[in-house]
Design a protein that fits this description.
Length: 456
């Protein structure tokens, strides 16, 4: 089914010429002469895209845009102006316009804008479909093969009660996996208690885990239950277990063997029924070889190993993660929800994320707060995110992002064309002459790569 495009312009010549061009391109077109007619047509016909004149008799374009966006906050509207001012452009942008075109209208510019807008719609609809089908267990978001495999592991292991050792780089979501294991277990209604072993000083870790009796050491002003007792009947998550002292490791091993815990300074042991889930970003085999981790404890903990994949191994999940974080952070902060255009999303997917999902989340929050318009575009990403390893030498992002020579060649072509178009102020004819390429070929490549002014 063809896309529906509504033209609202009080100049009959503009309406006729634009309608003829769009119909030739295969769109279903309706053209009206006033803001009132445009509003009525939008409400009845629900077009996917609107071309809207700024200056019209009666309701002007900016007021019409405002009312269209009130009817449909997701409306995609391209403004047309014979004498657009900076004030018009800023006003239209603030009201949610997708773009603004100046008269006399340039055919190439219209078609590039049209294809970018339709590409934006396609991406938005695809994201909506993905969100409907995405696997969400706790906050584990993704539809990649790596995430589906992870989710299947969680489903198989959760109900067994077996101890689990979760490994993975910083920021990959090891805690989320632990919480998902607890939530899908028979202990879901019991406590989930977390201990970050790297954040607690070594002299306090034993008190934190096993509790203490009043007066057992300076500062112990009352009896206190440790994390094992607090988690009784539920799950104890030992995060960054590789940073635990050897003395604490020995006591944890004894609790796992005997199912009993004794508070510091206490004489009486207490039975505890606790499922242990541990996590680390360290190679425990190397820690064992270096004498920093007990081998017997490792085998007690590593009944079922689960490895959380880094973001670079699941790049196809980045658009869903970005959308997820935008929606959640917008709701939490009260900031207006922004959209991300396809070029900005492609740039985010190509970057190196050393901090994995945690770094991506922080980046999305920065973009949500500081991006210059209602849509996050490539220039926002370049300005607010900066570069990652590999960008400076190639200009194409990390070479790890490319799996084939063809992918690299396309990325190189895209970077070259973007630079030349910017150099010639996005004049297609001048750019084609400068790079000795037929104008029709350049136009096809612009369409293929989804290039547009102000992006890249």
């Amino acid at each position: 089914m063809s896309r529906r495009v509504l033209i609202v312009d009080d100049e009959s010549g503009i309406r006729a010429a634009l309608a003829q061009l769009l119909e030739y391109e295969g769109y279903d077109v309706k053209a009206v002469a006033s803001g009132h007619e445009g509003l009525a047509s939008y409400e009845q016909w629900r077009p996917q895209l609107v071309f809207l004149d700024v200056k019209m008799e009666g309701i002007d374009g900016l007021e019409t845009l405002k009312r269209i966006r009130a009817l449909d906050p997701a409306a995609v509207v391209v403004m047309i102006s014979g004498h657009a001012t900076i004030q018009d452009a800023v006003g239209a942008t603030h009201l949610g316009a997708y773009d603004i075109l100046e008269k006399p209208l340039d055919t190439d510019r219209i078609l590039v804008t049209l294809r970018n807008a339709i590409g934006h719609l396609d991406l938005r609809e695809e994201n909506a479909r993905l969100r409907q089908s995405v696997e969400r267990h706790g906050e584990i978001v993704g539809a990649s093969e790596a995430v589906r495999g992870l989710v299947q592991q969680i489903e198989r292991v959760a109900a067994t009660g077996a101890r689990v050792l979760i490994t993975g780089e910083n920021g990959t979501g090891k805690e989320l996996v632990a919480r998902a294991l607890h939530a899908q277990s028979g202990k879901a209604k019991a406590p989930f208690v977390e201990v970050n072993c790297a954040a607690i000083p070594s002299e306090l870790i034993e008190s934190e885990l096993f509790g203490h009796m009043k007066g057992s050491f300076t500062g112990a002003i009352q009896d206190r239950a440790g994390k094992f007792e607090q988690a009784d009947g539920g799950t104890l998550f030992l995060d960054e277990i590789g940073d635990m002292s050897l003395a604490a490791q020995a006591k944890v091993l004894r609790v796992l063997q005997e199912g009993e815990v004794t508070r510091i300074g206490g004489a009486k042991s207490r039975k505890v029924d606790v499922r242990i889930i541990a996590a680390t970003n360290k190679r425990l085999d190397e820690e064992i070889a270096a004498g920093r981790f007990r081998e017997d404890l490792y085998y007690r903990l590593n009944v079922v190993p689960i490895t959380v994949p880094p973001l670079r191994e699941r790049r196809e999940d980045i658009p869903m993660l970005v959308q997820h974080f935008l929606e959640r952070l917008s709701k939490e902060s009260g900031l207006p929800l922004r959209t991300v255009d396809d070029e900005a999303m492609a740039r985010l997917a190509s970057l190196e994320w050393q901090g994995n999902i945690r770094e991506l989340r922080n980046t999305v929050e920065r973009l949500l707060i500081l991006a210059s318009g209602p849509r996050i575009v490539r220039t926002d990403v370049d300005r607010l995110v900066g570069t990652r390893a590999g960008d400076a030498t190639t200009g194409l992002g990390s070479l790890d992002a490319f799996t084939t020579y063809e992918e690299f060649k396309l990325a190189a072509e895209r970077a070259f064309l973007t630079a030349k178009l910017k150099q010639h102020d996005w004049n297609v004819a001048e750019t084609a002459r400068a790079i000795d390429m037929p104008r029709s070929n350049l136009y096809k490549k612009i369409e293929r790569h989804g290039l547009a002014r102000g992006q890249g």
